[in-house]
Beta-ketoacyl-[acyl-carrier-protein] synthase III
Amino acid sequence: MTALKTASGAQHAALLGVGSYRPSRVVPNAEIVEAIDSSDEWIQQRSGIKQRRWATPEETVRMMAVEASRKALDAAGIDARQIECVIVATVSHMLQTPAVATLVAHDLGTDNAAAFDISAACAGFCHGVGMAADLVRGGSAGHVLVIGVERLSDLTDVGDRGTAFIFADGAGAAVVGPSETPGIGPVVWGSQGEHFDHIRQREDWRDVIASEKPRMPHLVMLGNPVFRWAAYAMAKVGQEALDRAGITADQLDVFVPHQANMRIIDALARSMKLPATVKIARDIAEMGNTSAASVPLALDRMIAEGQARSGETALLIAFGAGLAYAAQVVTVP
Ligand SMILES: CC(C)(COP(=O)(O)OP(=O)(O)OC[C@H]1O[C@@H](n2cnc3c(N)ncnc32)[C@H](O)[C@@H]1OP(=O)(O)O)[C@@H](O)C(=O)NCCC(=O)NCCS
């Protein structure tokens, strides 16, 4: 048997820069409740959401991903031509193929970067960061751009009182590259396909076409079981990510959970017994649930507002349809 050469990359990988894009149109709860039997008070009390942003027609998945990426590249001080792989986590690029990542790579002016989309719903960005760290360390790519982007307003039934107030739009991106010290801890990830129906598109495209009254296959959700799963099972996943990174909750500075529901964020912090000194992302109040974009959007805001400082230790954790989840500890760039 002929032995093959193998690749090897940097000893360590880290987040080098983060950027985000917030769509221009602010949608307050007052607008949501025009179409459903609900109230601003109920929505705030049960979810913590005060408003969200829904993209205008010009704010496409491609456009938002490119804008967030440009800011991440600037923050990292990296030229787009140094990017060798672009990973876009999204469920709202409305073309089955090709991947929107190829357009994003092209718009940014990367030089023939590998580019592909991943479908891990709300957990997509943390899946991407885990993969990017391995690609950099394994020698498959020098620098990787990881983007979480969604236009969930396209997939939201504004008349469904179980979901209309939750889902929203936006983009966040991070540059992952070589580092002298470990900046991305081991990923803890998994899925529970037995709960495939907990959050899903109502029909697949063939059912839509066959239907007498074709309609967008909107997202549907069993809110209560999802809530219970996220609030309890995800605390264990977060703890495992801390353990695998070799740190305790006392050594954590920042907690950036998926922005699904303020009560889930609070329950996770309580179950994980995070000290009061840990700064917690609460972007959901202004942004709603932006699925794959929520973690980088929230992290970028904390960096911009001085809540997350360079060199601090942050736990990222995201979870959603699948039911898929992923978590890792990172060093704030
Ligand atoms: C959606 C969610 C906020 C609903 O909150 P909940 O406390 O579970 O609400 P329930 O579905 O149990 O309903 C409780 C009551 O509120 C009512 N209700 C449901 N939706 C309502 C709405 N939009 N406005 C007002 N009342 C509503 C129900 O009819 C029910 O009334 P009843 O007690 O008289 O029967 C919550 O389940 C949730 O956040 N789930 C997880 C969502 C999530 O994280 N999704 C994404 C993961 S990526």
Notes: Residues 36, 38, 42, 46-47, 122, 161-162, 165, 199, 221, 223-224, 226-227, 230, 260-261, 264, 289, 320 surround coenzyme A (CB under 6 Å).
